[in-house]
Amino acid sequence: MQEKIIEKLKKINRKISLIDLINELKLSEVEDIKQFHEEIINLEKKGEIITKKNKVIMVDKTNLIKGKLMVNRSGNFGFVDMGMDVFGKERDDIRIEREDFNGAENNDIVLLDHVTIREKTRFNKKWYVRQIIQKDSQNLVGEVISKDGLLYVKFDNSRYNDLLLEEGSHGVVLGSKVQIKRVEDKNNHLKAEIIKVIGHKDDVGMDVLSIVYSNNIPIEFSQETLDSLKEIPNMVSEEEIKGRIDLRDQVIFTIDGDGAKDFDDAVQIEKTKNNTYLLGVHIADVSHYVKEGSFLDKDAFIRGNSVYLTDRVIPMLPHLLSNGICSLNEGVVRLTFSVTMEIDEDGNILEYKIHESVIKSSKRMTYAKVNEFLEKGIVPEGYEQFTNKLLLMKELSEKLRRNKESRGYLDFNNPEMEIEVDSEGKPIAISKRNMGIGENLIEDFMIAANEAVATYASQNDFPLIYRIHGSPDYQKVEDFIKLLNSLGIRIKGSHKENLSKRMQQILNAIEEENVPVLSKRALIIMKKAIYSTDNIGHFGLGLTDYAHFTSPIRRYPDLMVHRSLKAALSIKGYNKKYLKTELQNIANHTSLTEANSVNCERDVEKIKSAEYMEKHIGEDFEAWIVNVGREGIWVQLDNLIEGLIRMREIGNDYFELNEEMQYVKARRSGVMYRIGQRIKVTLVGSSKESGEIDFILTKNNVKRGDENGNIKQKS
């Protein structure tokens, strides 16, 4: 019945009376008419239609707007995400003031209406929530508190209101951290139903654990998976080696971080008589142990990827696999899936072979020690016999990088935060993690292997999960150039038909002016990389074909790429022909789990940064302005910690905001603060609970930039 009603209403571009619609549908039986009225109520609850005075019309044929409400951290206002228009361009979000939420909360799907109000000489639309179509159904985490003699859940996310616990909730005390879902009682009032008691707020590591549960990231493996681990061997048998290329006598090694425990990639290199390079990238053969459809596989799929946090790793696979039989540990025999490439002097891949292999890693190297040798010439103990190989790898890496840049590779040079914690998970140091030569060469080699396997799939026309990255919107790029021009940074040339070159010019200009925070701003205008079976290429890498192949221990798409390749290569035991629709479903799911993990990692960084800064209230810091908005001025310290100077704290003058050009300017004095300026700030507040860090401006605060906000360095 619903489908018939919708189909009919789509053809009618006006309000129609319910009686006329019944006649249009040719309904005459009492039961049919009764069902009709029930479905009209259901469709209105879903926000598909609007009824008024016994007339009905489709919502998308009105001025009403349907979308998701995203409440800002203060809770004073929110935005409704408008998504894309019919031409694929992002539409401007609509701002809603708190008094116009009408009971809606963060992440609710709402229907918006507006009134037109006069402001000075202009008429503006004031939007309000007309209807809550769907309450946010995600599970939430909070603390059990007492209010008016009753137990409530105070959510970790302040965008949600406290919620009364259902009667009969057992196993909780004041201070319990719980994961709940929101349910309606018989009077249609929302209450909190406990899914899991996580622990107590004072337990060690509870802050991080709460964030993990808030992001709905699975922690425990199923009992079936744990039982199946009994069948996993702890060493490679001679029978398993049969049919593989034996590389156990080759010089092959891993290069990873100091704290790494799962080694899923190893590399080798040779120089040929023809002055070409033979690069071997050997990846843990996870698909040999994690069989499709097994309990292990099901758990890995649900997780989608491993999650790396300050004090723990939530692995995609149990440690028995990730740190054991699948990890390419030094001196032990391991099964691998390899890509061997011949690469010329210009960094072009001439030939490649994809094959099963067996290796024995010669050395477990670390980035720190590799960098010590390649950057300072100091040979660490135990590395003496590998120095020529490392120098050859550096040489090839530089050629691969130049080749990538010529094809449009974009280096945003955005460093990551490194948080050191003590045994109780408390942050004791926060710094910027820098990429050295060792990190760069491994990145270059992995990209080469990933490109090779994607090219093989593309040329042989079989379905694969690609890693794709669409080109940015041209207008967004030009708007960013206008912003840079307003800062005194000029971008020469015009490459309307070649956005890669345009973006390279932007990043080069930012690097020349030594304003690193603008690279982060440039990243915002880019689209997000996702997984898909539709191979549109990877804009950021400048590649036509690209997939993730090199990390099957920690990424499920890589595991699926291994399976697809083995089937295409007719390797024994892998004869399944994957349907594109089947792989696309996996791609969609793993794109979501990846985004979830990124959110979780950022949330943990946020609370750990705030916890660290609690010890530094009253201290002065130098900072970059990274964003200017309605809330105030966002600043970033040199260790990447970010905080806010609230608008009311900027000064006694009246400050006018220009969000597009990213500045605030004092009406009387003309003082301007804008993105990219170097300023001095004082820490006045920091809260681990909320993750909020607050600064104020110090006197004589502008360290770089004139009174007009021009940040270009003087020659």
Physical arrangement of strands within the biggest beta sheet = 6-5-4-7-8
Mean pLDDT: 90
Biggest β-sheet: count, sense, barrel?
Answer: 5 strands, antiparallel
End-to-end span in angstroms?
73 Å
Q: Oligomerization state of this entry?
A: single chain
Which residue ranges are poorly predicted, with pLDDT under 50 across at least 5 consecutive positions?
none
Q: Which term fits the overall shape?
A: globular
* Helix share bin: 25-40%
Structural features, described:
This protein is an alpha+beta fold and 715 residues long. The chain has 16 helices and 34 strands. Helix 4 (206-214) packs antiparallel against helix 16 (580-613) and helix 10 (387-407) crosses helix 11 (437-460).
Provide a short characterization of the protein structure.
The protein has 715 residues and is an alpha+beta fold.
Feature tags:
715 residues, 5-stranded antiparallel beta sheet, 30% strand, 6 domains, 29% helix, 34 strands, 16 helices, alpha+beta, Arc Repressor Mutant, subunit A, OB fold (Dihydrolipoamide Acetyltransferase, E2P)
Strand and helix map with partners:
Layout: H1 2-10, E1 16-17, H2 18-24, H3 30-45, E2 49-52, E3 55-58, E4 65-71, E5 77-81, E6 94-97, E7 109-119, E8 122-134, E9 140-147, E10 150-155, E11 163-164, E12 176-184, E13 190-200, H4 206-214, H5 223-228, H6 238-241, E14 245-246, E15 253-256, E16 265-271, E17 277-284, H7 295-303, E18 307-308, E19 313-314, H8 319-325, E20 333-343, E21 349-360, E22 363-366, H9 367-376, H10 387-407, E23 416-421, E24 427-433, H11 437-460, E25 466-468, H12 474-486, H13 499-513, H14 517-524, E26 530-532, H15 556-568, H16 580-613, E27 620-629, E28 632-637, E29 642-646, E30 655-658, E31 663-666, E32 672-674, E33 678-687, E34 692-704
Parallel strand pairs: 14-21, 15-22
Antiparallel strand pairs: 1-3, 2-3, 4-5, 4-7, 5-6, 7-8, 9-10, 9-12, 10-11, 12-13, 16-17, 17-20, 18-19, 20-21, 23-24, 25-26, 27-28, 27-33, 28-29, 30-31, 31-32, 33-34
Helix pairs in contact: 4-16, 10-11
